[in-house]
Amino acid sequence: MKTCLLLLVVLLLSVVTVHADIYVKQHAQTDEYYFGGQVSPALDSENEFWLGDNKILFATEQRLIIIDKNENKLIFANKSDSTYAETTLPLDWMKFVPEDFAGRLKMFETVGTVEATSETRMIEGFNCTAYKGNLYIPYQGTKYNERDVTLWITTDLPEATKTFSAIAHDIFKLRNYKEDFITELVKIDGFQILEETMNYQQGMSYTSTETVVEVSEKEAPEGTYTLPEWFKKKELLSREDLQDG
Questions:
Q1: Is 212:32 a contact under the CB 8 Å cutoff?
Q2: Helix/strand/coil (H/E/C) assignment for every residue in the chain
Q3: What is the pTM of this model?
Q4: Positive/negative CA dihedral, 102, 104, 105, 106
Q5: Smallest Cα–Cα separation from 84: which of 94, 73, 76, 96?
Q6: Residues 171, 68 contacting (CB under 8 angstroms)
């Protein structure tokens, strides 16, 4: 009888699978460039992701962004003044920014195309395939903020792919991509390891890259998917809150 009970316990434990969260560190680099009469110096920074059960924390030097599908919410926080705004999913700009600014965001959505190529490359230990894309904001017959991108995608990280895919639409919506473009992006099967971008501004061009330098499964620290208690909530985000940073 004891042997049977022990075997039953072992069988029960064997079907319980505990998935650790996924930690991702990303190195971002932008070349020096000239725009609007000023020279912007080259920039290097580190970004961090935590991918959990239907939720993500994206942390940069200036921001904390939390998307939690379990609680159906998106939090956008600025570290500089410790403020944040919160909204429900799916993202509706009319509920997240002032009405006049929401109208402008709707007018200036980013459109684009992306397609798979036969190019392959080993990057940071992962087998990657290149996807080529072009994106821009249509403005008075011109392509404003145009970018040519190469996305290097791996299928070596199935858990990261599964978690990211569940929230990818919300992330692309936050970038103000047009729905047709988002539809094409979410078809990509895999996890992005490297993004190489050629940016075009008023006849000038400069490059930027975002490279994943670490991916590991581990337990997220307590409070990872919540904000520190000293952050103050505000009703809406301002234009300045959404400036690149």
A1: no
A2: CHHHHHHHHHHHHHCCCCCCEEEEEEEEEECCEEECCEEECCEEEEEEEEEECCEEEEECCCEEEEEECCCCEEEEEECCCCEEEEEECCCCHHHCCCHHHHHHHHHCCEEEEEEEEEEEEEECCEEEEEEEEEEEEEECCEEEEEEEEEEEEECCCHHHHHHHHHHHHHHHHHCCECHHHHHHHCCCCCEEEEEEEEEEECCEEEEEEEEEEEEEEECCCCCCCCCCCCCEECCCCCCHHHCCC
A3: 0.89
A4: positive
A5: 76
A6: no
pLDDT digits (tens, 9 = 90+) for 184-235: 999 999 999 999 999 998 788 999 999 999 999 999 999 999 999 999 999 9
- pLDDT per position as a tens digit, 15-57: 444 468 999 999 999 998 877 778 889 999 999 999 999 999 9
The closest alpha carbon to 80, from 59, 57, 56, 61, belongs to: 61
- Kindly report the CATH class assigned to 22-218+228-242: mainly beta
Note the residue count of the chain: 245
